[in-house]
Amino acid sequence: IQAFRQRAAEAGLRGVIAPVRPVLKAAYPLMAMDDFIRWTEADGSPVDPWLRSHQRAGGRIIGPCLRSMTVVAPTARWEAWTGLRLPPSGRHAVPGCLAPLEIDTQAGVARYEEPNVWVVHTVG
Questions:
Q1: CA distance 15 to 50
Q2: In CA terms, which of 9, 63, 84, 97 is 20 to 30 Å from 78?
Q3: Residue of 44, 57, 48 lying closest to 121 (CA atoms)
Q4: pLDDT tens digit sequence for 34-74
Q5: What gap in Å lies between CA 12 and CA 34, rounded to an integer?
Q6: Cα–Cα distance measured from residue 100 to residue 90, given in angstroms and rounded to the nearest whole number
């Protein structure tokens, strides 16, 4: 975190906005990102350790980035990537994914839209 803040300062930037992938979110794929980022410890810091690290480094959480990454691929490819036999059409939790995988058995494809969290760091 400090390295990218330093590089931003060296480049003359006033700040950096980053889509941050919370490390604990995969354990809660059905929880909305809005709810996840409001989930805090007793001291008010984020439950997620990576978001907490950004906050402690001076970052400010500004909201969810609902489609940080979108992957649409044939179901067979998803099965190869995950090592799972995917269930019929619908929304299904997949280990390591931050949100459910949308499976369309008839079309033979699955779609994943990964949410992240926008965090802004001012520098200088």
A1: 19
A2: 63
A3: 57
A4: 999 999 999 999 999 999 999 999 999 999 999 999 999 99
A5: 32
A6: 9
